């Protein structure tokens, strides 16, 4: 496709919007200098209309891809002719970009269309080949060459003479299997490797002593001890308020831990919470047995307690602060003979 140089990128000077087509500028004032004919400057409306036509053409080409790349379609050629007509009015780089985009799109579709063409140069018509053979054999079989005779041996011989010069004799070759007396080579047996001084064992291997992490066990015993301390305290002080039990005036973290320990007692059924006016009273109960869970007379439920720092400050003001975990734990250890613990069931 041929494209003419239309002076893409020209600019206006002197503030004028258009220049006369017949305006001619002489370079250096000499008669032999090249004559430069300035193209008319396009208005904004003309450029906008040209870009609109380019975008419409690009959308048409993109939307009709399946039709344009068909081997029997000439749609790409028509699109290129429209692009040539539009390019004659291109004078600025902005419109040239759209023209380049259109050319790239049509080039890509052209490659896909070329790949769809079925070119079979080595194919032949078997029916036509047999027909021509038959016609030639009939011609050679007739002594008068009138194509009226039936095919005979004479026709085959003449036909073979005609094609004989076009074929070469296939060379004869023999298979080579090697000598008749063939004995397989015996495989060499490597002697055992002598042991070096490094390979001689120096004694039984010694392993480092395994260290068992008892941190988890200690934490479990500590949790069970504190749960047992809280249980014995509630047995000595029945009808204790939930807030009076868990609230600790010196530590927000200890308050959270007290709620954690109390959750084991509540979950295993050692205690229950009864509502008395606006207070939550803790009452000791008999833990349910396994058959109660199987018969669904007892069911496990879950509750979430929200406690933030401001709530803890409010709880300290309404709690009697009679329960202190650390003090009760020390007395518990003394009663158990210096740290012995009684395990409390913690069903999960």
Automatic annotation (TrEMBL):
Does the entry feature the keyword Electron transport, yes or no? no
Extract the PANTHER family matched here: NON-STRUCTURAL MAINTENANCE OF CHROMOSOMES ELEMENT 4
Which segments constitute the Non-structural maintenance of chromosome element 4 C-terminal domain?
241-320
The record's section on Pfam families has: Nse4-Nse3_bdg (PF15412), Nse4_C (PF08743)
Share an example GO biological-process annotation for this protein.
DNA repair
Record domain Nse4/EID protein Nse3/MAGE-binding: where: 99-144
Q: Where is the composition biased (Polar residues)?
A: 23-33
Role summary: Component of the SMC5-SMC6 complex, that promotes sister chromatid alignment after DNA damage and facilitates double-stranded DNA breaks (DSBs) repair via homologous recombination between sister chromatids.
Homology family: Belongs to the NSE4 family.
Indicate what this protein is called per its UniProt record.
Non-structural maintenance of chromosomes element 4
Q: Which residues does the annotated region (Disordered) include?
A: 1-44
Which compartments does it reside in?
Nucleus
Instruction: Kindly state one GO CC term assigned in the UniProt record.
Output: nucleus
């Amino acid at each position: 496709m041929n494209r003419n140089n239309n002076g893409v990128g020209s600019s206006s000077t002197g503030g004028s919007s258009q220049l006369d087509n017949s305006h001619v500028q002489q370079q250096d004032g000499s008669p032999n200098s090249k004559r430069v004919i300035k193209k008319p400057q396009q208005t904004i409306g003309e450029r906008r209309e040209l870009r609109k036509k380019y975008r419409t053409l690009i959308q048409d080409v993109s939307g009709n891809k399946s039709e344009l790349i068909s081997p029997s379609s000439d749609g790409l050629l028509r699109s290129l002719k429209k692009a040539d007509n539009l390019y004659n009015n291109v004078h600025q780089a902005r419109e040239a970009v759209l023209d380049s985009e259109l050319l790239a799109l049509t080039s890509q579709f052209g490659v896909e269309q070329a790949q769809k063409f079925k070119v079979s140069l080595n194919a032949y018509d078997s029916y036509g080949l047999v027909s021509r053979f038959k016609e030639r054999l009939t011609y050679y079989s007739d002594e008068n060459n009138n194509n009226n005779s039936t095919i005979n041996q004479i026709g085959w011989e003449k036909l073979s003479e005609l094609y004989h010069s076009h074929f070469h004799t296939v060379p004869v070759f023999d298979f080579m299997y090697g000598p008749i007396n063939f004995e397989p080579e015996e495989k060499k047996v490597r002697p055992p490797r002598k042991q070096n001084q490094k390979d001689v064992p120096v004694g039984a291997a010694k392993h480092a002593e395994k260290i068992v992490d008892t941190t988890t066990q200690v934490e479990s015993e500590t949790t069970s001890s504190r749960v047992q301390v809280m249980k014995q305290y509630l047995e000595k002080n029945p009808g204790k308020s939930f807030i009076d039990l868990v609230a600790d005036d010196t530590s927000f973290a200890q308050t959270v831990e007290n709620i954690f320990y109390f959750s084991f007692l509540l979950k295993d059924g050692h205690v229950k919470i009864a509502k008395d006016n606006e207070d939550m009273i803790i009452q000791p109960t008999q833990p349910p047995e396994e058959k109660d869970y199987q018969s669904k007379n007892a069911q496990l439920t879950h509750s979430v307690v929200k406690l933030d720092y401001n709530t803890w400050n409010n709880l300290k003001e309404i709690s009697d602060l009679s329960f202190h975990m650390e003090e009760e734990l020390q007395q518990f250890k003394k009663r158990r003979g210096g740290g012995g613990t009684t395990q409390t069931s913690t069903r999960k």
